[in-house]
Design a protein that fits this description.
- The chain has 8 helices and 5 strands, in the order βαβααβααβααβα.
- The protein is of the alpha/beta class and about 200 residues long.
- It has a single domain, classed as Rossmann fold (3-Layer(aba) Sandwich), CATH 3.40.50.
- The protein has a 5-stranded parallel sheet with strand order 2-3-1-4-5, with helices on both faces.
- Bound molecules: adenosine-5'-triphosphate and magnesium ion.
Length: about 200
């Protein structure tokens, strides 16, 4: 089903199940006859690759200001090169992380949320932004094999606080991520179907 241009982002702590759920959602939507595409941040573009190499797994953490600027730059390209073209073709775009990740991670690291918002002003607004909420202790357990510099418990708690701020404002929809993969997927699909009905 072409012509259903909708932009959805999936947010949450490291290991909460974003990739699992974003991919499941795309698969389910395609099965239902929609055109749906999966994409993720950091993107597969030049800046995204740079971030993966030097910010996420590079050992010592870069200055948080540089980090925020790099993520915003990558997002600009991601929107221009991937998200907008797919929406123009009438697809449902599901992004595994988006602007709220910058708010949550660089915000948790001490940056002013208003400034992060400002440098991301070119990032188009998603039609639906989902926060998969999982106990920080649980994600730490899930993650023990693939640690990055952003993944210790104290950080995760701070990051969750920022996400919950946006849930409080109604910008993010909270989905209970402590349940089984299928239950989480069902809850996400329910929110998406509601949006699709409203759009129709
Ligand atoms: N609801 C769930 N219950 C139990 N385990 C889960 C659930 N959802 C995902 N997992 C498992 O947790 C791990 C992390 O999941 P996933 O990679 O989807 O998380 P993520 O949010 O994309 O992580 P990252 O931020 O590191 O990319 C995987 O091993 C996955 O199989
Ligand atoms: Mg992932």
């Amino acid at each position: 089903m072409k012509g259903t241009s909708i932009f959805i982002c999936i947010e949450g702590l490291d290991g909460c199940g974003k990739t699992t759920q974003a991919r499941l959602l795309v698969r389910r939507l395609i099965k239902m006859g929609y055109d749906a595409v999966y994409t993720a941040e950091p993107s597969r573009g030049k800046i995204g690759n740079f971030i993966r190499k030097y910010c996420l797994h590079g050992g010592k953490r870069m200055s948080v200001v540089v980090e925020a600027l790099l993520f915003a730059a990558d997002r600009f390209e991601h929107v221009k090169d991937v998200i907008l073209p797919a929406l123009d073709e009438g697809s449902i775009v599901v992004s595994d992380r988006y602007v709220y990740s910058s708010m949550a991670y660089q915000g948790a690291a001490g940056l002013d949320l208003k400034w992060i918002e400002m440098i991301n002003e070119h990032a188009i607004r998603p039609n639906l932004a989902i926060f998969i909420d999982v106990e920080p202790h649980t994600v730490i357990k899930r993650l023990k094999s693939k640690k990055s510099v952003m993944e210790n418990l104290e950080t995760q708690l701070k990051v969750r606080d920022v996400y919950m701020k946006f849930v409080g404002k109604g910008a993010l929809i909270r989905i209970d991520g402590n349940k089984s993969k299928k239950e989480v997927a069902d809850a996400i699909l329910k929110a998406v179907m509601k949006l699709l009905r409203e759009k129709a």
